[in-house]
């Protein structure tokens, strides 16, 4: 869904690919908090020019997923204040976007939603949490598209970058991914029926589902949280 991707405006295909690969690694926790990234090594690993990689890394610094320290890029710990700010941002926009999308829905978008839901089901069947989170985010982007609100999407996504790791942890800890994907099938049905209030209610319920995950994070992974003393201390 490149046409919906707010990072396309980096204007550098190598930078855009690097951004997505590294951001995906941070969100999925394959790149753990406090991990140090060597830009020359990563450029060689990804097969991209160093200048393009540095553009991608600087974008991730702006999203507070990385910090730069003495020329070294370090994966940020999870900042709970930023997580909650991201939650507030989504709560401010997304139920409203859902209502507008339902009110103005055009069936020409049917195939995009249906392909997304099919791929979500495949991700559920394969237990692929990374793919499922990406597809859920793609579904959200489609709602912004239907509401003719793509202009605000980069602001929302940048503000919610820290929140994405919480969402990934929640999916990874879920005993059954099926009901989560079923919610999106229900959302699509409500969208086509133009039931904006009911669609917005599901969106709001999904937003509030992060709070049990925050509790779990504090219990099981306190060293991932910014401010925890940990072995490396606060960065």
Record keyword descriptors for this entry.
Four Helix Bundle (Hemerythrin (Met), subunit A); 11 helices; Arc Repressor Mutant, subunit A; 235 residues; 66% helix; mainly alpha; 3 strands
Explain the overall architecture.
The chain has eleven helices and three strands. It has 235 residues and is mainly α. It has two domains: 68 residues, Orthogonal Bundle (Arc Repressor Mutant, subunit A); 141 residues, GntR ligand-binding domain-like (Four Helix Bundle (Hemerythrin (Met), subunit A)), CATH 1.20.120. Helix 9 packs antiparallel against helix 10.
Write the layout of secondary structure elements.
Elements: H1 13-27, E1 36-37, H2 39-46, H3 50-62, E2 66-69, E3 72-75, H4 80-103, H5 110-126, H6 129-146, H7 153-159, H8 161-173, H9 178-192, H10 196-208, H11 210-220
Antiparallel strand pairs: 1-3, 2-3
Short account of what is shown:
By secondary structure, the chain is mainly alpha-helical.
